[in-house]
Amino acid sequence: MADEEDELQETELSYDQKKEIAKWFLLNAPAGEINYVAKDLKEVLSDEEVYNEAAMEAFPVYNKSHMICLEMPSRAGEVIVSSYSEITENEYLDPRTAQVAIVDHVKQICSKVRPAYDEELPSSYIEEFRSALDAEIQRYVSESYPKGVSTVNCVKGKDADGPETDFELVVLITARKLSPQNFCNGSWRSVWHIDFQDESQVLDIKGKVQVGAHYFEEGNVELDAKKEFQDSTIFQSADDCAIAIANIIRHHETEYLGALEVAYSKLPDNTFKDLRRKLPVTRTLFPWQNTLQFSLTREVEKELGLGNSRNDWLFGLEIHVKAMYNKLVFTNRKMEKDCVQTAHLFKVPNVLSSVKDVKPKGMRDSSSLRSCLMTSFFYNY
């Protein structure tokens, strides 16, 4: 007994181990589901201190990586929580409204806002490019993403006051469709870095798209797709640059979305089919092309000798039917259903007609035997 108690003490998780495990679950929650995970974790841990510390560390990372959108007070707009707009741990800049949102990460709310300071905003020269691009991206997102939100931040060279200076803008696009009552949630996140190089008069564009989806009705299927892009265009005026950049982003995202739709439309007929077992344990495929000519009667007579000895043949027939069924490889549910409905698979009428004159012990007549066979066959199916 003492040895068992010592073993239990040795396997007890430490405070840090519990916290790290809790953080892992929170950080890996699908889009829009972290609060459900947090609620269950709180009950499982039964330790308020461990949960609170894990939540304080995990929620900010999760919110920024998923680029969640929070409504600002007084309907001032929405702010995207991301590392590109972060001023302090709980403050995030919305350059479109020139306001800073103060965020409660665990509650996932924007508690209040304040005007942005001058040093937190880009110069007038940079703002000309930023606002022009922001308007074009906002137009594209409103056309392409239901309830999509976008923003454009300056992450390098925001103090530039004229040409001959390099700077970098980042376009953020996020859209979510949460429908937990229908057991599915999904999100789209894209980040585009635009490097304005004055000397070479070129704009280098690098993007990354992340698509996540979770379907959990009678199962648990999760999609996590990522794609990176690279492109370029020439340095022009603010309005011309904005149009060119928006068209490039539109092209790549539309093309990627189309490729995803094609790829996943082929899953049932190709990918999932390849995951199925090619052959049964007998290493023999069922001849589907000759299904209508397949006769179980010959197999029964051959293996059980119905014409010679009929002792215990009913038991043997039942075993044989099971064995024949186990040899089959149904490629889809419809084929399986059709075979049963048409009754061609085992030629049940042929089997029954072959025993019309047989009266095993305990049976009043051959019709009782046929009824027993029919019931036994479909019951075992």
TrEMBL record:
GO terms for molecular function: actin binding. PROSITE patterns: F_ACTIN_CAPPING_A_1, F_ACTIN_CAPPING_A_2. Coiled coil: none annotated. One of its GO terms (cellular component) is F-actin capping protein complex. GO terms for biological process: barbed-end actin filament capping. Keywords: Actin capping, Actin-binding. Gene3D superfamilies: F-actin capping protein, alpha subunit, F-actin capping protein, beta subunit. InterPro entries: CapZ_alpha, CapZ_alpha/beta, CapZ_alpha/beta_2, CapZ_alpha_1, F-actin_cap_asu_CS. SUPFAM superfamilies: Subunits of heterodimeric actin filament capping protein Capz (SSF90096). Belongs to the F-actin-capping protein alpha subunit family. This is F-actin-capping protein subunit alpha.
